[in-house]
Amino acid sequence: MIKSIVFDMDDTLYDEIDYYKSGFKVVSRTIASDFGLNETKVSDTLWKIFDCGNHKNAFDETAKNFGITFDDNYIAKLIDIFRNHKPDISLPAESRQVLTELRKKFKLGLITDGWLPAQEYKVRALQLENYLDCIIYTEKLGPENWKPSPKSFEMILSNFGIEACETVYVGDNLRKDFIAPNKMGFKTILISRQNRIHSESAPSQDAAAQYEINSISEIVNLLKKIDGL
User: Fold this and answer.
1) Residue range 24-42: average pLDDT?
2) Is the pTM of this model over 0.90?
3) Contacts of 218 (CB under 8 A, 6+ apart)
4) Which residues, in sequence order, are CB contacts of 63 under 8 Å at separation 6+?
């Protein structure tokens, strides 16, 4: 019998692309101010480069488009601004509705990788404290305990006082999200959002989710099916 549902956050409970848009807006404002450029043009250029898949070099490629150069210190400054900005994001209505419905029956938890305070700012902006019983930031446990480490999953089971077989884990990233919970005996669900950042295939069968849905709104009916198996 299922007693708890544990979620990933980015691209699971909301579209992570909205976070990038929010951060790029702040970064573009800084670049425009520092180099005397048009903020809208900088923002449009940065987003176009990122949206084409050039994630790692988006800042450098943006600079090239304007005939300027960013040294390593300036890149570090932009990354710091991005990570520490207060994001203009909100929890989608369907996520609010589903979490509200699920909490009537299940303990709800969150395990999120990523740099602090960025992940904490996201949680606050999305107001997730209102819907969840336990939130674990893996960065607080040390980078070695980011997923696919089992540490955070062990902690949430201990917090809820339940077994892995009584828990469902819901995520989006096939490279790392499901390896530990699969090994531990969780039931696992992939949310395959249309615009998710990490859309790579699972590197092995051990990394694949047991179930797949396209929207969080599908989870209630799927849970009924899983619990009835």
Assistant:
1) 98
2) yes
3) none
4) 69, 70
pLDDT value at 165 more than 70: yes
Q: Which 3-state string (H, E, C) describes the chain?
A: CCCEEEECCECCCECHHHHHHHHHHHHHHHHHHHHCCCHHHHHHHHHHHHHCCCCCCHHHHHHHHCCCCCCHHHHHHHHHHHHHCCCCCCCCHHHHHHHHHHCCCCEEEEEECCCCCHHHHHHHHHCHHHCCCEEEEHHHHCHHHCCCCCHHHHHHHHHHCCCHHHEEEEECCCCCCCHHHHHHCCEEEEECCCCCCCCCCCCCHHHCCCEEECCHHHHHHHHHHHHHC
